[in-house]
Amino acid sequence: MRAKILIFLFAFLMIFSSVSFAVELNSKDLQWEPKWYKPQVLSSVELAKSILTNLMASQKFSTWLGYIPTKIDADKYGLRVFGVYGDQQETSVINLTEVRDAFIYYLPNLDRDFKWCVVVVLSHQDPSFQYFRTQDLETAQKLSDVISTFALAAGSKLYTPTGIDYFVDEKKMDKLKKDTCWSENYGAFVESVESTSPADTAGFKPNDIITEVNGEKVKDNMGFVGLIQNGVEGKESAQFNVKVYRNKTFLNLSMTVPNFNYGKEKLVSDTNQQKPQILSKASLGIDVKSISYSTDTGETYNGLKVLNIKPNSLAEESGIKVGDIILEINDKAVRDIPSMANVISNEIPVKFKVLRNGEILALDAAQSF
């Protein structure tokens, strides 16, 4: 799982990273050591905001390129971190409704003070990531707590990891089968186990082949993942009896896995009872294209035609529909994607002017958290 994340990470950095940082941050020799951590679901969104504000004031975390945060906005649509490095600026945006996890890594050979990294993984529907570096493990854990709490309050469902990384290379799996005389066509193949994780505590080892969970046959890697995710659903934690094939013999292991989503219901309920407050929106949740539209009366409008709207996004909750042409946000014309990005990156979206079926409509932006 994490190996795939790192592949995406390196691909992204090779394209977009600053040249001056390329040697240290993009080096193929950069070491990534995963640190298993169960994020704490904080008691409220307000507490999460307070902790994040204190982290920003401490200057103990930065964006990947080293930009120190100077301003942070958060609501159920997104987390936006404004950072500066010298005379340069950078804005990191996380769509909280798509957050799947916030993994922690240690980068021992990185030539920087901030050697810890929080990698925020987004869902399969939005296959991307965001990452922050921190000065120490405690800061990384607090940042993971905050991001996870925000994500749960926004309605996201987090992935509950066991600490197992799986073989995905068919040749390596075939070799493992041959070496261990495993002739069956099922099982999950363990490549590595993270220290202090549930799997490590239970006694899993690299090259184990997981064959059963609670008496149910494990079809493949994803089959095992699915059994774990379903097993912890609605519980604070769940205990699993796991049969593994190791060194040509079967072993029974007992593994207890904490649910990363536990506490979400209370958090969401308490959040919904709070007085709504409009904050900066990191994303409208729409796909658009520039368009020039002429009406039957000869009037011409330039704006952004809405091609797709994500469920539960700011756009959907504000009443924007597919086919609408967005003309203005906060009374500012948006004729292309850069102009729209400029508005929502620097202002709180309060109102929209859209053209729908030849009629001009004024829509109020949905409220947050």
From TrEMBL:
<dbReference type="GO" id="GO:0006508">
    <property type="term" value="P:proteolysis"/>
</dbReference>
<feature type="domain" description="PDZ">
    <location>
        <begin position="280"/>
        <end position="337"/>
    </location>
</feature>
<dbReference type="GO" id="GO:0004252">
    <property type="term" value="F:serine-type endopeptidase activity"/>
</dbReference>
<feature type="signal peptide">
    <location>
        <begin position="1"/>
        <end position="22"/>
    </location>
</feature>
<keyword id="KW-0732">Signal</keyword>
<dbReference type="InterPro" id="IPR036034">
    <property type="entry name" value="PDZ_sf"/>
</dbReference>
<dbReference type="GO" id="GO:0012501">
    <property type="term" value="P:programmed cell death"/>
</dbReference>
<protein>
    <submittedName>
        <fullName>PDZ domain (Also known as DHR or GLGF)</fullName>
    </submittedName>
</protein>
<dbReference type="Pfam" id="PF13180">
    <property type="entry name" value="PDZ_2"/>
</dbReference>
<dbReference type="InterPro" id="IPR001478">
    <property type="entry name" value="PDZ"/>
</dbReference>
<comment type="similarity">
    <text>Belongs to the peptidase S1C family.</text>
</comment>
